[in-house]
Amino acid sequence: MVTSLTAKTPVPTGRWRAENFVAGDPALELANTISNRRDPELAEDRIADPRDLADWARSLSLDAGAAPADRADVRRVRAVREAVHDAFAAIAVGREPPRAAVAALLRAAAEGFESCGAAPPRLHAALAWRAITALAALSRDRVGACPACGWLFLDTSKSGRRRWCAMATCGTAEKVRAFRRRAAGAAP
Prior knowledge:
188 residues, globular
């Protein structure tokens, strides 16, 4: 079975809920902090301020020893998030991750580790490092993207046929739509 690089179960904090953590790996969870990526009108950046970032990190136990988040941290984490999304979205459709995305992750990780001395690296650098580690360690054929919302996930199912970010949300909604199309006589 394919497993995440972390065995910790998210403990949602603040406005974060269990349904916000369906990816199975912290790097993929970061990419999913924008909801509804496939529909720009419905898209919502769930890391809007330092509190959202701090709560998200705490939910995944990524805040140990970290300095309090500020606006600059939010900006840097968002940049890492986009590189993570670009890299793993490509993998989810069977392509190599874009070099620019991988380079951005390497720069962010290096920047954080070079500047921190004995202190823990800033959150963006730690997240970039986790993403680089995930790029190297996760089984690429187990990284998927939800066809409904665009969220990324690590398929840890025995069969390796997971299709949705979560059956309770996107999977159920899509099955209802397909049923209605069939019932109306339309082609699936």
